[in-house]
Amino acid sequence: MITSIFILVLALAVALVKGAAIGDDEVYCEINPLQYTNSPLIIPTGGTTFLYPSYGETTLKIPAGETVDLVCPGSNLIVLGSRTEEVIQATCISNARFRILGERTLWTQVSCAGDATAKSLYTGAVCVNGGKIAEIGFSLTDGRFLSTITVCYDAVDQSPLYTYFDMTASIGNNAKGTPRPSFSQDGGFYSIGSRTVNQLYTRSVQRGTINAQIGLSATDIKYIDNGNWFFLARGHLTARADFFYPAQQNATFRYINAAPQWQSFNGLNWNEIENSVRDYADVNGVDLQVWTGVYGIATLPHESTGEDTPLYLYTATDGTTALPVPSIYWKVVYNPSSRRGVALIGANNPYDVNAADKLICTDVSSSLNWLSWNRLNITQGYSYACSVADLRRVVSYAPNLQVSGILV
Ligand SMILES: *[C@@H]1O[C@H](CO)[C@@H](O)[C@H](O)[C@H]1NC(C)=O
Ligand SMILES: *[C@@H]1O[C@H](CO)[C@@H](O)[C@H](O)[C@H]1NC(C)=O
């Protein structure tokens, strides 16, 4: 009771502070940042962050006289019908009217000539377990890099260990239903012979690769069938729908943000976990910090020896392996203002009937009421929740957070 009153007072205080950005009598521009699927991104002048509508709003408000950068990464803005630059400045006059390149121009009169081009770059920094830090984002010709996702990448296993991104409290009003691009393989991250990562994931190639490891014939459909659920999908670590803008959503389709994930888990309990996290940010009006990672290697029994055999999407004749099929997926969700956090975990093996006996930390899921999942269903991905510290006792590269309590 006392806590809920406190939270209410806190929420009111936050609402007042946020609302105070633009006063009642102040002149401002008000625009729909999702006007077109090819509207430019709006970022602070000279900045590298993205502007979002305030919580609960679908429009972006910019005070009169304030200047922002309009950006079409890797392309050009079309302004009043003419192709201009990759980045141009716009100063709010009022309503939807800006001064752009000296002309009074409506927000509806600007768009991007082409799709935003994302890329992944090593930063030179390192993370734990021999991982290397890479950023996924947009590289501008003026030298700026607009990062969307940070990846701790294991260049030996050729797999992300975890990814990190900031979820906006406004995620409930994000772009929905925009077309999905295919996955891109960034240069400098893979060394897998003559095949592409995309080829390794195709149903027939993954079936041949996995079957060879467990002593099945190349075409046997015992584990990887031709249906909708039992195959290894390109499992996003940071989800597409976790971002607000179509360009950011498209940028999640990089192989360094993906690992092999059984589709029955990917499309069911893991999908529910992702949805529940977005709903949490939306319902509570909070910005969240989200780390998503993998751990261990999933196994299947060898046909002749019965031995648990670790699975990879890439194996070479010299014994080299890469692109392991993770044993679990985990997601640490942290609210920096309350300093509460939780680790959500799902088992990536619909065939492991013993999944419930293999929890890596103490299950606290009974204290969470904001997840809608069939968490005990093995086909859908047996799932549970732990404290962040408890996860980190096993997964050394999980974030080291000073958490004040479980995110309830
Ligand atoms: C996102 O990708 C889809 C599919 O390739 C494309 O149609 C769309 O224009 C892209 N959006 C942006 C903003 O780049
Ligand atoms: C688990 O989920 C699968 C896939 O949705 C379903 O077919 C199956 O009946 C469920 N099992 C149980 C025990 O509820």
UniProtKB/TrEMBL annotation:
Alphabetized PANTHER family for the sequence: ENDONUCLEASE RELATED, NUCLEASE EXOG, MITOCHONDRIAL
Organism of derivation: Exocentrus adspersus
Segments passing through the bilayer: none
Keyword Transferase: no
Taxonomic lineage from the root: Eukaryota, Metazoa, Ecdysozoa, Arthropoda, Hexapoda
Leader sequence segment: 1-19
Active site positions, chain numbering: H236 (proton acceptor)
Name listed for the protein in its UniProt record: DNA/RNA non-specific endonuclease/pyrophosphatase/phosphodiesterase domain-containing protein
GO cellular component, one term: mitochondrial inner membrane
